[in-house]
Amino acid sequence: MAVRRLALETLGWTLIVLGVAALFLPGPGLLMLFAGTVVLSRQYEWFDRRLLVVKRLALEGASRGVQSWPKIAGSLLGVAWLIGLGIFWGIGSPVPTWWPLSPDLWLVGGWGTGGTLIVSGLVGLALLVYAFRRFRGTPYDHEVEVVHDLHRREERRRARAVRRRARTEVTPG
């Protein structure tokens, strides 16, 4: 049990740190922050409370983003742009004459950076498909989600209490 808890905490905090770094570097920073928060919410009540706010904002945004075809088309264009930029970055191109910095700083990272951009685009596409399937025609209802989250949290509390009781009970030998 302690090994599992340590592994989850290590994973959660690693995702948080990588997410903060990816906010400034190419990569899915917000997604990694969210994933780290989800993992840590299993260990800490205060992360669980903050997760509800983040979840509400994310689901409201996802729901709004698929309620009209122009918004869906814009999202698809953004996904295509990210993937195309990743391919362009990976393949590389000659340094243009207008580039004011050292030629070594043109498209730094090669396929490492390009691959991250492509993965970000694919994650964006997967999230768009998820939002389309879940919310298209039935917008997000925060009140229903709050009730669902309260039930989920209560179930987790009960399960923790059962596990605690099971550990403290002495079995006859």
Estimate what percentage of residues fall within beta strands. Answer: under 5%
> Total helix count?
6
Stretches with pLDDT under 50, minimum 5 residues: none
Distance between the termini: 22 Å
Care to count the β-strands? 0
Main sheet record: none
Protein structure class:
mainly alpha
User: What is the helical fraction, as a range of percent?
Assistant: over 70%
Key phrases:
single chain, 173 residues, mainly alpha, 77% helix, 0% strand
Word description of this protein:
It contains six helices and no strands. The chain is mostly helical. α2 crosses α3 (45-65).
Reconstruct the topology from this structure.
Layout: H1 2-24, H2 29-41, H3 45-65, H4 69-91, H5 110-135, H6 142-168
Helix pairs in contact: 1-2, 2-3, 3-5, 4-5
Provide a quick synopsis of the model.
The chain is mainly alpha-helical and 173 residues long. It has helices at residues 2-24, 29-41, 45-65, 69-91, 110-135, 142-168. Helix content is 77%, strand content 0%.
